[in-house]
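Feature request, filed as a ticket because there's no other form

It would be nice if the structure record came with a short human-readable summary line next to the tokens. Right now we just get the raw output. Example of a typical job, pasted below so the devs can see what we mean:
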Amino acid sequence: MSRERARRRAAREAEQARQAALRAERETRLARRRERVGRLTALLPGRPVRIAVQGGIMARRRRAQNGLVAVLFFIVQAIAWLLWSSWAARFGVFVLSALFVPLFFTLVFDRRS
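Raw output as currently delivered:
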């Protein structure tokens, strides 16, 4: 019984030693990577000061409107790609969409009237 217990303890200790070696190797690799990244980021110029995103009602509405227009633009492009196999037709739809997006935006979301 004690031999079996000693054998299991030895196997358990060997597994723990293997896990410790793997953990040490992983930590060493991570430390080397952090060092490389640190050296590279030290060469880069400092980041500019970030301006806070405005969170008022008008700003949220404007972001929602811009998102809606972008989604509609991409939907129109996807439909054009699915309907026509001609590159000229696809390009024509892209150009017309790019020209009509400001017009659509002004007509639908204009606040002056």
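Something like this underneath would help us a lot:
The longest helix spans residues 2-43.
The two ends are 92 Å apart (CA to CA).
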